[in-house]
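In full, the data:

***
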Amino acid sequence: MRDASFLPTAEGYDRWSDFYDTEGNPLLDLDEVIVRELLPDPRGLRVLDLGCGTGRHLGRFLDAGARVVGLDFSAGMLTTMHPALFLRDVQAHYVDRDSGREVRFESHPHQVGVFVLAALRAGLTILDIREDTPSRELAATNPRLEKFLGWPMLLALLLKRPRDAA
C-alpha cells in the first residue's frame, strides 16, 4: 500500500472531482450501464439526481428534454459505493497527480435499508432497486473491474413521488 493522506469527506471528493470522470474509475462503467437501464428515456420527466457526483448524467437528461435537478453535498461531487464494498475494505480513494500519494477520505458505510427507509419516509414510491455487480463483459472493457466480479458495487434506487403517477 502506498503512503496515504486522509482528508475530510467533502474536501476529498472536491479535489477528486477535477479528474474523476477521466481516470478510468471502474465504478463509472457500471454506473453508466445501470442509469441507462433505469432511465432509458427521461424525455418529459422531472429528474432528481441525488448524489449526482460530477453531474455527468445531467447533460444527457437535459438533452433528452427532462427537467433536471442535481444535488450533492460536495461542491465537486459525492461518489457513494455499495455498502458491501466496505466488507472488502474498499473505500473511495485516488492518487494525487502532483504528489503521487494515495488520498483517502472519511467514508460512512450506510446499509441499504437506510436508503430505502429514507425514501419511504419522504413519501416516495420505490420503482426499482439495483445492487449491481460488474459482468465479465464489462470487466473486459475496464480491467480494474475484474477484482469486483461477484461483489455489488453500485446501489441505485429509482423513486417516484406518488403525485407523479403515470
Notes: The longest strand covers residues 125-132. DSSP finds five helices and seven strands in the chain. The longest helix spans residues 26-38.
